[in-house]
Amino acid sequence: MAGAVVLTTVLLGLLASPAQAATAQGCSGSVAAVGSQGHGLDSLALPGSGGTPAHPFRLLWGEPVEWTAQTAEPVTSGTWWVAVQHPSWLFALGQLVSGHPHGLTGTFDSGAGGTTFTNSFTPSDVEAVTLPGAYDVAFTVTGAGGVQCTATLSVRVVDSPFRNPLFWLADLLVVAGLVLLFAFGILKLARPVYVRGTEPKGVSRHLVADTLAGLLLGVGASLLVTLYGGVGWSTTTPNLIIVLGVVVGLAVGLVPARTTRASNSRR
Question: 168 in the Ramachandran plot: left (φ > 0), alpha (ψ -120 to 50) or beta?
């Protein structure tokens, strides 16, 4: 069953939305990420040919992201806003729990107030929880005078999932789902269930437990493949994996148990 989930994930990942280049509206500019040793990790021109799902902009959650914008009107200060486009159900739930349902926001001060200005921010200063993986994001800068520019691009958060508590939670959910499916699903097919004289033969057993097991397995598998970057948080695949897990658990629960009548001497 776990193999079927992984295989389906790979196939659905190939059907993800087609790659589109990074765009910019109302401005032009660039974005650069700093590596853990202080060297440049990645850079991207906006608009530009990079920033696609196949070649995303890479960044470290705990290191600065520097951005530069050129606008038609001078800008001295304002706000920036990063929002994940088309977030999966799990990611949207995580945003709600973390208190950032509308993305990450912050302020900037460009100093001289020219038409070209530079600023930076560190994602971990805004949100402590790191979510490795691939995203489609919109980065919007609004100047104090009403000037606004929006850039859209694909981003890859470079970080080991082994250092993320959600990775271990996902492993726990997968193991729990498999154990429940084996205990309440597989075993009911391997040995008969004794029924009372008034009960019909061939009844399905443990439907709720098997469905719950499928849900746990689906959520865990969805977390694993997104944290590893196998599929993007902004695709429908993470949601489909959860649905697949529920369907598998429901199907196992609906399989009738092999039953036998209890003898009169059996208590």
Answer: alpha
Torsions phi, psi of 91, nearest 5? Answer: -65, -40
Confidence band, pLDDT 50/70/90 cuts, at residue 228: confident
Each residue's pLDDT tens digit, 57-97: 999 998 999 998 888 888 888 899 999 999 988 888 888 88
Q: State the Cα–Cα distance between residues 173 and 143, nearest whole angstrom.
A: 45
Residue 19: pLDDT band with limits 50, 70, 90 = very low
- CATH 2.70.50 domain range(s) in the chain: 18-159
Chain centroid to Cα 198, Å, comes to 49
Which tokens go with 175?
């193991």
Cα(258)–Cα(76) distance, rounded to whole angstroms?
74
95 Cβ contact list (under 8 Å, min separation 6): 84, 87, 101, 102, 103
Task: State the Cα–Cα distance between residues 18 and 23, nearest whole angstrom.
Answer: 15
What is the CATH T-level fold of the domain 18-159, as seen in this structure?
A: Coagulation Factor XIII; Chain A, domain 1 (2.70.50)
Helix (H, G, I), strand (E, B) or coil at 130: coil
Cα–Cα distance, 106 to 117 (Å, whole number): 16
Per-residue model confidence as pLDDT tens digits over 38-59:
678 899 999 988 999 889 999 9
For the question of whether the overall pTM of this predicted structure is more than 0.70, the answer is yes
Q: Which of 153, 117, 128 is nearest to 43 (CA)?
A: 153
Please determine, for residue 147, whether its predicted confidence score (pLDDT) is greater than 80: yes
**What is the C-alpha to C-alpha distance for residues 177 and 179, in angstroms, rounded to an integer?**
5
Contact (CB, 8 A) for 140 and 81: yes
Comparing CA positions, the residue from 227, 229, 225, 220 lying closest to residue 162 is 227
